[in-house]
UniProtKB/TrEMBL annotation:
The chain crosses the membrane at residues 6-27, 48-71, 83-105, 112-133, 139-165, 224-245, 257-279, 312-332. GO terms for biological process: phosphate ion transmembrane transport. The keyword Transmembrane applies. One of its GO terms (cellular component) is membrane. It is found in: Membrane. It comes from the Bacteria. This is Phosphate transporter. GO terms for molecular function: phosphate transmembrane transporter activity. Pfam families: PHO4.
Length: 337
């Protein structure tokens, strides 16, 4: 009976850590949803975070749990996963998120989680083949693909809008898009909630599978897990990460109502397609690509390429850095948990 109680307490502790990561995900990545509408003055910061948080949670009723399924059983072999691996993965992702938030670097919470999961699993396996390369390889490929898709969609939308409104003054076009950018930001927030909340759902599902309290059919996952994860990310988004808003909204390129709308809509389309396809992409990479795309479509010199290059370095470092921290915490967990 004592061992059972300890098992239940450990399971509860790890689910709490997972929800803390989910909260930090929203806190860290909330800037992705609101940076354009804050930078253009469409909403005040307080209104913007409430707006984004609402649509983050509303994504619960829009998307199937395909991304959760990819994280839960498509990244590492579940047979290698135990409580210590989950603990290491979550701590690796949490610590990397805190570091990048502190320095105002819009890195990927998604890739921090994936890197943590892979790092802790590899540390445990030592030998063997713990990585599911079909799923993990897809995630690695989208480190390049998702920002490129964002650049292309953001740029194309900017060119299309410029052509459609070619006979309209910038003031009139800006007036028209003042409301339009709210629609675009709402759609982006839906995509952000749908893709990112499901990553934590996938981790908790994997944890429950290893504990023997869930099956490998995602449809049997308890409803409270799904609601808890969507609420946690929405709450984190509401509290917001203002350091990153400044980077995303003003430092990459100057945004106005028109370019902000195109960036949000480009990011929203890319995220929506990825979520429907069950691909856990980085919302950070996607919206950054879209912002670069609209800036470059206006004037290549309007993009601050030095800052963009620094962001890309952080993107490349995220998976190995989170993986290394996760491996350390996996070891500590085996000694003290």
């Amino acid at each position: 009976m004592e061992g059972l109680n300890m098992s239940i307490w450990t399971l509860g502790l790890l689910i709490a850590i997972a929800l803390a990561f989910d909260f930090m995900n929203g806190f860290h990545d909330g800037a992705n949803s609101i940076s354009t509408i804050v930078a253009t003055g469409a909403l005040t910061p307080k209104q913007a975070v409430l707006f984004a948080a609402f649509f983050n949670f509303a994504a619960l009723w829009v998307f199937e749990l395909k991304v959760a399924a990819t994280i839960g059983k498509g990244t590492v072999d579940p047979s290698f996963v135990d409580y210590y691996v989950i603990f290491g993965a979550l701590m690796g992702a949490l610590i990397w998120n805190i570091i990048t938030w502190y320095y105002g670097i819009p890195s990927s919470s998604s890739h921090a989680l994936v890197g943590g999961l892979v790092g802790a699993t590899v540390a445990k396996a030592a030998s063997g083949a713990p990585i599911v390369w079909a799923g993990f390889g897809k995630i690695l490929a989208f480190i390049i693909i998702s920002p490129l898709v964002g650049v292309i969609l953001g740029g194309l939308l900017m060119v299309l809008v410029a052509w459609i409104f070619r006979g309209t003054s910038p003031y009139q076009a800006g007036k028209f898009f003042k409301g339009g950018q709210l629609i675009a930001a709402a759609l982006y927030s839906l995509g952000h909630g749908g893709n990112d909340a499901q990553k934590t759902i996938g981790i908790i599902w994997l944890l429950m599978i290893t504990a023997g309290v869930a099956t490998k059919d995602v449809a049997t996952l308890p409803t409270w897990v799904i609601y808890s994860c969507y609420f946690a990310i929405a709450w984190g988004t509401y509290l917001g990460g203002w350091r990153i808003v400044k980077t995303m909204g003003t430092k990459i390129t100057k945004l106005n109502a028109v370019s902000g709308s195109c960036a949000s809509m480009g990011g929203a389309i890319a995220l929506g397609l990825a979520t429907l396809g069950g691909i856990p992409v980085s919302t950070t990479h996607t919206i950054t690509g879209a912002i670069i795309g609209v800036g470059a479509a206006t004037d290549v010199k309007a993009v601050r390429w030095a800052i963009t290059a620094n962001l890309m370095v952080a993107w490349v470092l995220t998976i190995p850095a989170a993986g290394l921290v996760a491996a350390i915490f996996w070891y500590l967990g085996t000694k003290f948990l």
